[in-house]
Structures are given as structure tokens and as C-alpha cells.
Design a protein that fits this description.
mainly alpha
């Protein structure tokens, strides 16, 4: 009896997937308003330095038009552009927070930014460690592409180092945010493999290039992870030092007014996400007093400025995001299995007919 090979079954599956009516893809939607100044910044510094005076100085507009220069990417004539304005890096943070669940927009945009040569330092140095932290938190709690983003960050570390951006992959932002997310992920998916968890912890640590453990939260996070997943982290991370917990307080502000206090609240949002994570994964009777004090003070400011609790909000979106992904993966797996069975059945019937003809 004729039995189709797995390779043939796979090829038919692939053929059926791609055997669709080819229609031109719709034009990409315009970038959101928040991204416009960031894209303009990228375009400026991705333009050859020798061409910038021609393109961006109004007095050279006529000269540029007579030169008939073409954009190497679009092949369209290069037109004069308005001079770029100074851009605050908080714009990128605001933009990242607008990306909805399941969207590829930010990931594709980030890939474009990191596709240029590391010699264009203005582009690579636009990112700071706080951006990375927001990217990681948003990808985990809201967008749903945590593994893809962190994997891509690992892959681009060498290029960021070539651009001499040595402090980007740090402890207090990069390392702490990934470990905090891993804690939540281990609980949501009920991970219980100490060996695998320790291996992943070592991998995150190996990618840290700036070991600035000044507030001691890294130590508490690693302790929580070890306790949650059943391994002893002591001595497992080379160069990982024990640091006393020290967190910022309002009393340390040089000016005690609403403006400076509001800035304190905004600047410490991600720190609060980490301290709340530590509190959640610690025994109620054993929460670090500095962490407890910081959380209470930050929650008081939430009420003062009528702000929703970002951590509570993230817990809600995390449940929604990862439940959707689990459901989607389940549906895709079922469709894949049904398709393979269907193709296998068709091939068996074809094989039987061929065998009958040969007889």
C-alpha cells in the first residue's frame, strides 16, 4: 500500500497555503502622529552627512532640485525637507505605550532603526536604558511579543556595543525588567523546571554589559525567581554582588512642589512595577521594608494625581494578552493538525488509485 512521505505531506501543505489569489497588498497606514518626529530624526541622521546641507537648508532648495538626485531606497527624486526640530526622548516612550496587543508595528519599526551601520551613532544612541525597559514591559504586559523582542535585543547587543553604547544593557533597567517579566510568566504558565529557569537567568545575565546594581532590586528579583522555581541562585551568576536595597523617596527631592513631585512619580513608574512584582512574589511577612515603603509612597501619589495604578492595570492586560495568545496558539495548532490529516488522507487516496492502475 502506498504511504506518502512526511516531506511530500509538508510540501502539499505549503503549496495549499500559498496557492491563493495574488492581490497587491494594501498601502501601509500612515505612521501615528507620535512617531512622526522620531521618523524625521531617523531620516535626517540616516542621510549622508554631505547631503544634509543641501536637503535641509532652505537656501539650498533650488540647487538640490537642479541636481536630480534620487533616493537610493525609493528611487524617487530627493526633495528639500524642513529642518528637524529638537526631539525629547520621552516621545519614544509615549509612542511605545500606544502599541496595541498583537501589533507588529513597533517591532518592524525597531528592526528598521537597528538595520543601519553602527557608525551612525546618533541613531543607535537615541535609545536609552529606560526605553528598553518600557519596550520590555509593554511587549510582555500588553503587546504579547515578549520572547520575540527580548531575543531580538540579545541579537543586536553586539551592534549596540560597536556603536559604543555600553550602558544600554544594564542591570537596573534591562536585567531587572526581564527577570520581573519572567517571574510573572512562570506563574501564569505554571513553569516548574528549575534547570531551564536557571539556564535562562544565566543567559539574561550574560547579556548585561553595565552592571550598575545601585538600588539592590536585582538581588531581590533573583531571590524571588529562585524561590518561585525551586533553585538556589547563590553563586550562580559570576560577578553578581549583593547590594543593600536603597530606593528614592520624596523627602530627598530638592524642591517640594507639585511639579517636582509629579516628575518623581513619572520617573519612577517602572521602578514601581518592579517593586510591586517583588512584593507579590515575596511572603507577606517578609517583604523588604524599603520596597514596602516605596510602594506605599507611590500609591499615595497615584491618588494625589488621580492616576490609575500602572501595576494593577498591567496585571489586567497581562491576563488578557496571554489568554488571547494561548487561545490563538491552540486554534492554530488544531488547524495545522486538521490540515495535515486532510492532506495525508488525500495522498493515501491518490496512492491507492495509482496502485490499482498499476495492477
Amino acid at each position: 500500500m502506498y504511504r506518502p512521505s512526511s516531506k511530500l505531506s509538508s510540501s502539499v501543505t505549503i503549496f495549499k497555503r500559498f496557492n491563493t489569489t495574488t492581490t497587491p497588498p494594501p498601502p501601509p497606514p500612515p505612521p501615528p502622529p507620535l512617531r512622526k518626529p522620531i521618523d524625521e530624526y531617523f531620516t535626517y541622521f540616516n542621510t549622508k552627512a554631505t547631503l544634509r546641507p543641501l536637503i535641509y537648508r532652505p537656501k539650498n532648495a533650488n540647487t538640490l532640485l537642479t541636481m536630480d538626485l534620487k533616493d537610493p531606497m525609493t528611487k524617487e527624486p530627493i526633495k528639500p525637507r524642513s529642518p528637524i526640530k529638537p526631539i525629547q526622548k520621552t516621545v519614544l516612550t509615549e509612542y511605545i505605550k500606544t502599541i496595541p496587543y498583537g501589533s507588529n508595528e513597533f517591532y518592524d519599526w525597531f528592526k528598521k532603526w537597528t538595520s543601519v551601520t553602527p557608525r551612525k551613532r546618533e541613531i543607535w544612541h537615541f535609545f536609552n536604558s529606560a526605553h528598553f525597559q518600557t519596550m520590555i514591559f509593554q511587549s510582555f504586559f500588553k503587546i504579547g511579543d515578549f520572547s520575540r523582542l527580548t531575543g531580538y535585543l540579545y541579537s543586536k547587543r553586539a551592534k549596540f556595543m560597536k556603536s559604543k553604547h555600553y550602558k544600554l544593557y544594564d542591570m537596573e533597567h534591562f536585567f531587572n525588567s526581564i527577570i520581573a517579566c519572567n517571574l510573572h510568566r512562570s506563574k501564569f504558565f505554571e513553569f516548574d523546571n528549575p534547570k531551564t529557569s536557571l539556564k535562562k537567568l544565566k543567559n539574561v545575565w550574560a547579556n548585561v554589559t553595565f552592571r550598575n546594581n545601585t538600588n539592590g532590586l536585582s538581588n531581590l528579583l533573583v531571590e524571588c525567581l529562585g524561590r518561585r522555581l525551586g533553585f538556589d541562585p547563590s553563586g550562580q551568576l559570576k560577578g553578581f554582588e549583593n547590594v543593600k536595597v536603597k530606593l528614592p523617596t520624596i523627602s530627598e527631592l530638592s524642591e517640594q512642589n507639585d511639579e517636582s513631585i509629579k516628575k518623581f512619580h513619572e520617573d519612577n513608574e517602572n521602578t514601581y512595577i518592579i517593586t510591586r512584582t517583588i512584593a507579590q512574589f515575596s511572603d507577606a511577612s517578609d517583604i523588604n521594608p524599603e520596597v514596602q515603603k516605596f510602594n506605599e509612597e507611590y500609591q499615595t501619589l497615584n491618588k494625589k494625581f488621580l492616576k490609575q495604578d500602572i501595576y494593577d492595570e498591567y496585571m489586567h492586560t497581562m491576563e488578557d494578552t496571554w489568554s488571547k495568545k494561548l487561545k490563538l496558539n491552540s486554534v492554530l495548532n488544531e488547524q495545522e493538525e486538521d490540515e495535515i490529516k486532510e492532506n495525508s488522507s488525500e495522498l493515501k487516496e491518490d496512492g491507492s488509485e495509482e496502485q490499482q492502475k498499476s495492477n
